[in-house]
Amino acid sequence: MPIEEKGASADRHSAGQSAASAAHLSYVLGFDGGQTGTTCLLAGSDGAILGRGVGGGLVHLARPDGQQRMRSALCEAVASAWQMAGLPPQRCAAVYLGLTGVENGTPEAAMAEQIAGELIEADIITAANDATSALAGALLGKPGVVVIAGTGAIALGGDETGRQVFSGGWGWLLGDEGSASYLGRRGVLAALRAWDGRDPPTQLLPLLREHFHLDDFYGLKRIIYGSTLEAPLFADLAPLVVKAAQEEDAVAQQIVTEAAYELALVASAVINRLSFGGDSVPVAPLGGVFRAGDLVLRPFRRRLCRLQPRARIVAPILPAACGSVLLALRACGALTETTIARLVSDAWQRGWAHVE
Amino acid sequence: MPIEEKGASADRHSAGQSAASAAHLSYVLGFDGGQTGTTCLLAGSDGAILGRGVGGGLVHLARPDGQQRMRSALCEAVASAWQMAGLPPQRCAAVYLGLTGVENGTPEAAMAEQIAGELIEADIITAANDATSALAGALLGKPGVVVIAGTGAIALGGDETGRQVFSGGWGWLLGDEGSASYLGRRGVLAALRAWDGRDPPTQLLPLLREHFHLDDFYGLKRIIYGSTLEAPLFADLAPLVVKAAQEEDAVAQQIVTEAAYELALVASAVINRLSFGGDSVPVAPLGGVFRAGDLVLRPFRRRLCRLQPRARIVAPILPAACGSVLLALRACGALTETTIARLVSDAWQRGWAHVE
């Protein structure tokens, strides 16, 4: 299945690579499973990206519907990836799954590997936390730290020795400080605290009232406690908080600033617990919360520089799904400077290099 | 249904009362429905308490099982109250239900009244928030404020004009700052923040590990996210935080102090929004969190005095179930100084005057 190569740099690679690798070309799959959706990338063992598919979002595997949701999401994503590549599903050399709520080496990882094994034929299947894939994608497997602030929030770092540690990422009820769900929940709390006379007035009150079509705020209890409780319930409200902060609402600005400080704190905690040589430690911010731009980035940078003078904020290179491809290539012994270069080039050309 | 009168003061009342009221004696029921259990008191229209029953805990009526849980809890509590009184269930003059999650004048209140009406025959049925009953019981219907810190947390005040306002009490996901669920959740957060390197070490880590029989803290995610999410999940952990604070753990002490400050803040917000004449405003603390004693009371008093110099902390006189009886007596026109005195005296003699 030929893919059209449009860029000069890709042409250069493919010219050198195709003859050598075509005979042994095998496939790898890289997954990025988050709370709002799951992405699957299909690549050749030469690093060429061949197809991309998407599926539903995941919830913790301990939830009654957790396993079924994962099964559906992976199935949908992998089927559409093969389809886009114009290939029939076939045995893969390696599959790497970066999945939210799945910690490396836990029973959840084993369960995710088993679920994937029932859906996909492969020599090697590895499941780990989605942050592991994000780190691999953002820094192309090099030492450093990613701070991911999407629906949830976590920092993960890896040093020269290969050791990885995380901070944050305990889910919306136990932390995820700095995430969209944190922003949204803090926004609701601040509005209610203003409404009942505890805190200063805030634009969040009319914004939430409008968003939920509320006559009174008792209605909010009805909505929240009548819902299936999941992180996106509050994460969906984060844009209201960002909007209020952009419109100079002091209460909302305070919430956003504290979120940024929390994100600097997880990055710093990770750096403290690893050994980085060199003058600087690259820290790549990822996830929808950082799309608020300077509103978040400025206090994040300020606090991080104070906590960790060696930290250097860098733009992430590839998204987590590409990171999973990279880790799958490594798992089957196909990771080289050449395959990495091909992966980067293909991801950019096909428009899949965008890191949220 | 004769009840034994043991105290001299009760004898004094009953001597004067029995002849006058026996001919017209009718019954009232007062309910206190909380997240951990429901109490029903059966009283005569002369204020004598005749029986007491208990039922299950309540969840918000918007929850799929909310209505059924309320039906079971009320049914169980009222049946056992009649039984203890040695009376067959019969028509009542008034029923007052103070129920968690049921705000005065909302659709939830109407729904609770309807559910009660299907179970109990009565001339008047009124449902309102349990804080309304707690206020009536704690101050015997006089102006002032109650601060309730149980599974949830709320302050409710009523002034000389009869106007009532509340602050806090938005449930465990939207606030309830200072409650047992707040203490427990903050304790878990602090432990995880210490574990992943963000915050200082704390005794909460070994305490939680032991409590949940955890090998690693990933297990906590499994427990929390695999559970039916309700306030008691975290409220059950509050004693661990109190214990750690009593053993001088600085992190736990900070959490308890902040909880106490939050409780002072809801009380203050209520006082700000009402008009109290006189030199002082009585504020009665209630609920299990205050059982931690000086650990909570000292910072609560300190902060409240700074925010509201007129506030005077007083011991609550009767519990919320007695407050509901008082409000039921008022609803059927039977509330007098004499019936109040009888209610107080009976509650004390029968050992039901204990306010948590």
Task: Tell me what you see in this structure.
The structure is a homodimer of 356-residue chains. The first copy, chain A, is α/β, with parallel strands linked by helices. In chain A, 47% of the residues lie in helices and 18% in strands. In chain A, α9 packs across α10 and α12 packs antiparallel against α13 (337-349). The longest helix of chain A is centred in the C-terminal third of the chain and has 23 residues, at 250-272. Chain A is globular and about 65 Å long. Chain A binds chain B through residues 59-60, 62-63, 101, 103, 106, 108, 165-168, 170-171, 173-175, 185, 188-189, 192-193, 196-198, 216, 218, 220-226, 229, 265-266, 269-270, 272-273, and chain B through 59-60, 62-63, 101, 103, 106, 108, 165-168, 170-171, 173-175, 185, 188-189, 192-193, 196-198, 216, 218, 220-226, 229, 265-266, 269-270, 272-273.
User: What about the largest sheet of chain A?
Assistant: 5 strands, mixed
Poorly predicted runs of chain A? 1-23
Number of DSSP-assigned strands of chain A? 10
Give the SSE string of chain A. HEEEHEHEHEEEHHHHHHEHEHH
Helix content of chain A: 40-55%
N- to C-terminal separation of chain A? 29 Å
Rg over C-alpha atoms of chain A, rounded to the nearest angstrom: 21 Å
* CATH-defined superfamily of the largest domain in chain A: ATPase, nucleotide binding domain
As a percent range, the share of strand residues of chain A is 15-25%
Give the averaged pLDDT of chain A, no decimals. Answer: 90
Oligomer: homodimer
| CATH top level label of the largest domain in chain A | Alpha Beta
